[in-house]
Amino acid sequence: MTKISSKDASIRNLELCKIAPVIPVLIIEDISSARDLGEALVAGGLPVLEVTLRTKCALQAITEMSKIKGGIVGAGTLITYNDVKNAVDAGATFGVAPGATDKLIDACEEAGLPLLAGASSASEAMALLEKGYSVQKFFPAEAAGGAAFIKSLSSPLPQITFCPTGGISQKNAVNYLDSSNVECVGGSWVAPKEAISNRDWQKIEDLAKDAVRELS
Ligand code: 3PG
Fold first, then answer.
1. Domain for residue 184, yes or no?
2. Per-residue pLDDT for 196 more than 90?
3. Which of 142, 163, 188, 193 to mutate to test the pocket of ligand 1 (most atoms within 8 A of CB)?
């Protein structure tokens, strides 16, 4: 892959955030569920998928889900240089991290992977902005101040667009999406653990449809 600048990463991330109101955050324990899970979410109208690198089969799941027509698959929970390398090799087309370090940012730029880096304070958001990252994840959203906090940043830092993630649900998502500096939210509620283990793909498709209908 060719290198990517922070500016181009921000442009790509903004495009991704505009596709649907929710980026499902996925923890996949069983590789045999990856394809069906992704297909249910894409069928429900949520094509941008974040597969967290928290399970043994996460990289394989990225590869499997990358085959889904209409899906756009990224890797979440990027922490190290190797995470970035492995994610790109597996087929991830964007990366998400709970925070940001210089090493991680450099690794993503080198690998050509647009990084949605995390910030949870005004200073962290400003530090990312200084590096050229104008689209950021706000994490952990509910615990770090919630929708009121993110709204408070819109006046002094209008040039930053956020994707809040962490503790967001179908109920409170609208509070975030109402804010002028929020383009989409991330969340696991559209792919509950129980529905995945029961292979209840219809339920997951319906949750995705509800999110699209009520939050777009
Ligand atoms: C995470 O990294 O786990 C995400 O922020 C998802 O959080 P959620 O499970 O509260 O939606």
1. yes
2. yes
3. 188
Contact 11, 112 (CB under 8 A): no
pLDDT in tens, 94-126: 999 999 999 999 999 999 999 999 999 999 999
The reply to whether the predicted model has a pTM over 0.90 is yes
Active site residue 39: no
93 lines ligand 1 (CB under 6 A): no
Could you tell me how far CA 137 lies from the centroid of its own chain?
A: 8
Q: Write the CATH number for 184.
A: 3.20.20.70
Is there a cis peptide before residue 156, judged by omega within 30 degrees of 0? no
- 203 has catalytic annotation: no
Atom 1, ligand 1: residue with shortest CA distance: 166
> Could you tell me the residue range of the domain that residue 84 belongs to?
6-209
Please return the burial class of 31, using the count of CB atoms within 10 Å of its CB with bins 0-12, 13-18 and 19+: middle
Count how many domains the chain has. 1
pLDDT exceeds cutoff 90 at 53 = yes
Q: What is the DSSP string of 108-130?
A: HHHHT--EE-EE-SHHHHHHHHH
C-beta of residue 210 within 8 angstroms of C-beta of residue 186: no
CA–centroid distance, residue 167 to ligand 1 (Å)? 6
Is residue 107 in some structural domain? yes
DSSP assignments along 190-211, one per residue: TS-HHHHHTT-HHHHHHHHHHH
- Given the residues 39, 109, 137, 205, select the one marked as catalytic: 137
* pLDDT average, residue stretch 19-45: 98
